Amino acid sequence: MRLVTLTGLDVRLGGHTALTNVDFHIDKGEIVTVVGPNGSGKTTLLKTIIGAVKPRRGTLERADGLRIGYVPQRLAIDNTLPLTVRRFLCLPRRHPEATLQAALEDAGADGLMDRQMTALSGGQFQRVLLARAILDKPDLLILDEPTTGLDQPGSAALYRQIEQLRQDLGSAVLMVSHELHVVMSASDRVVCLNGHVCCHGTPEIVADAPEYRALFGSGTQGALALYRHDHDHHHHGHPAHSHEHGDCDHA
Q1: Among 104, 124, 163, 240, whose CB has the most other CB atoms within 10 angstroms?
Q2: What is the pTM of this model?
């Protein structure tokens, strides 16, 4: 089932063209990761899908009744503002205590309900943001560089939590990430963006594409092969990656 389809999308921000002629889709249950250099329009693409940015041209179609959960790249909270995790999760509307507790558990943030938001570690803060995003059991979970500021073990743990949520909730996951080794191991499809879609497809296809290598080099290919061997050996329950053909147009 197709959740979101973008066709011929152009977006202008502040007098500058951020995205040009973008075609994109995401289907139920899949993990799609968007990569690209700084300023390539990654965050703009996510904000367009959630409705925070209006396209100048093109069409955006969402499945009827589509529920979206969003984890922003950064969220600043005033250090002088007393705000517990419970109160934060109930903005802008209250939820039953059992719903809050279940979301925190699913996000790996159990036990943080009465903590002050400003007292949380970076990893705890991100997990609370994740809990808030899944309160309404989204069909599509959108995450904008969710591991920014986390160390490598913290990042790995958060990505495992996201994968578990995909399995438990059946949510599709659309993620922006700069951690290419993780992208190449955890995604069903990868979209390489640089103001336009310069390459997309399965991780193997994108890693081999000259457009991708021109932007990022070829260092992730070894990591991909290593991960796949380890992954297949240890995690037989992971859903198989689709083998649909990718499209790596010359930019």
Answers
A1: 104
A2: 0.84
Vertex 57 angle, CA 54 and 58, to 5°: 100
Please give the DSSP secondary-structure letter assigned to residue 80: T
Q: Where are the domains of the chain?
A: 2-67+137-234
Per-residue pLDDT of the chain (251 residues; tens, 9 = 90+): 999 999 999 999 988 999 999 999 999 999 999 999 888 999 999 999 999 999 999 999 999 999 999 998 878 888 888 899 999 999 989 999 999 999 999 999 999 999 999 999 988 999 999 999 999 999 999 999 998 888 888 888 888 889 888 999 999 999 998 888 777 778 999 999 999 999 999 988 888 888 888 888 765 554 444 344 334 433 333 333 333 445 655 43
CA 245 – CA 251 distance, rounded (Å): 18
CATH of domain 2-67+137-234: 3.40.50.300
- Picking from 238, 199, 196, 231, the residue whose alpha carbon sits closest to that of residue 216 is 199
With beta carbons less than 8 A apart as the criterion, state whether 193 and 45 touch. yes
Regarding beta strands 2-13 and 57-62, do their DSSP bridges make them parallel or antiparallel, or are they unpaired?
A: antiparallel
